[in-house]
Amino acid sequence: MNPIDQIAEARIRDAIERGELSGLPGEGRPLQLDDDSAIPEELRAAYRILKNSGFLPPELQLRKELRDAEQLLGLLPESERSRARVRLELLQLRLAASRCQPINLLLEDRYRQCLLDRLDGVQK
Predict the structure, then answer these.
(1) Domain locations in the chain?
(2) Contact, 87 vs 48, CB < 8 A?
(3) This model's pTM is above 0.70
(4) Are 88 and 70 in contact (CB under 8 A)?
(5) Per-residue pLDDT at 112
(6) Closest by alpha carbon to 50, among 39, 7, 88, 94?
(7) What pLDDT digit, counting tens, does each position of 31-53 carry?
(8) Is 92 exposed, middle or buried (0-12, 13-18, 19+ CB in 10 A)?
(9) Residue 76 Cα distances to 70, 71, 79, 87, 92, angstroms
(10) Which residue, among 70, 114, 71, has the nearest Cα to 88 in the 3D structure?
(11) What gap in Å lies between CA 106 and CA 123, rounded to an integer?
């Protein structure tokens, strides 16, 4: 165990012995820890501070916008959905680009269906 962990553990033990950690909200229940395994170790503390301050990392902000856009899309009248779908697809592309992962459009259900519909129209 490194020296910082040893100091932290000693202070926690001292606080427990003095009763300073008794009666706190959530006592006796398991901790609800965030899964930060996808965040590089050297950035985890900074991301946690930003999150606790109400700010989100760019990728999580994009995911939030994407989720909000998907919910709003269902509430729009059919005549306005086309433009909203374009915005939604743009957000999806930005999210995929931020992950630095190649995008395989053939695996996307909507794109594949549009492509099949278009090819079906050409063959008739």
Answers:
(1) 58-117
(2) no
(3) no
(4) yes
(5) 63
(6) 39
(7) 777 777 777 888 888 878 877 88
(8) middle
(9) 10, 9, 8, 13, 19
(10) 70
(11) 20
